[in-house]
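2024-03-11 09:14:02 INFO worker-7 job=invfold-0412 stage=load source=structure_tokens
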């Protein structure tokens, strides 16, 4: 699977923070709806348009990737001061996600962890990425107490997942998982360098 953002795009300043062209984002969605194997590199569009389309995809989902009923547990886990205990609690939260939610969440967090590793160039720290993504992945419902609590506890509830991605997801790694080393390195979930 391919995020659409090329490896060279990982160094693009403001990745996921800077908005791309709205028309390009809509075109990406239309093309993807018709063909899930579309090669975004052939479209001649900016990395920001691809990342914007990805965020729009999650925003358009009828339910958040992190279900509302688990957002209070997530907020409680993020609020734990001891790092080791917090990581254990976050592992417990993700274990309770429905399998498809877990798989997609693991994929997107692994990608964000990778973006974070390039933060000296792209200026996207784990906090910046969490600020950009948590409303997209959690879809805060300000009439729901769990969502209000998650918002009040931290504006960056997915930051610990980005920082501690390999540790948090280690307990549920399957053979050939994209988090497992392949030929001595992590599998590149981004495309090879090139123009989009």
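2024-03-11 09:14:09 INFO worker-7 stage=emit residues=196
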């Amino acid at each position: 699977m391919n995020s659409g953002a090329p490896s060279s795009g990982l160094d693009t300043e403001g990745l996921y923070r800077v908005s791309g062209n709205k028309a390009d984002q809509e075109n990406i969605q239309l093309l993807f709806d018709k063909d899930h194997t579309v090669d975004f590199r052939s479209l001649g569009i900016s990395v920001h348009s691809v990342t914007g389309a990805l965020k729009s995809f999650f925003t358009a989902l009828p339910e958040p990737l992190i279900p509302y009923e688990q957002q209070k547990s997530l907020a409680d886990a993020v609020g734990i001061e001891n790092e080791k205990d917090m990581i254990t609690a976050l592992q417990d939260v993700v274990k309770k996600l429905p399998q498809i939610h877990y798989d997609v969440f693991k994929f997107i967090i692994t990608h964000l962890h990778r973006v974070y590793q390039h933060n000296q160039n792209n200026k996207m720290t784990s906090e910046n990425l969490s600020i950009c993504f948590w409303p997209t992945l959690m879809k805060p419902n300000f009439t729901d107490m769990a969502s209000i609590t998650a918002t009040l506890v931290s504006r960056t509830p997915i930051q610990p997942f980005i920082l501690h991605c390999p540790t948090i997801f280690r307990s549920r790694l399957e053979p050939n998982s994209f988090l497992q080393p392949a030929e001595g390195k992590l599998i590149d979930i981004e495309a090879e360098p090139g123009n989009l």
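2024-03-11 09:14:09 INFO worker-7 stage=report msg="The chain has a mean pLDDT of 80."
2024-03-11 09:14:10 INFO worker-7 job finished
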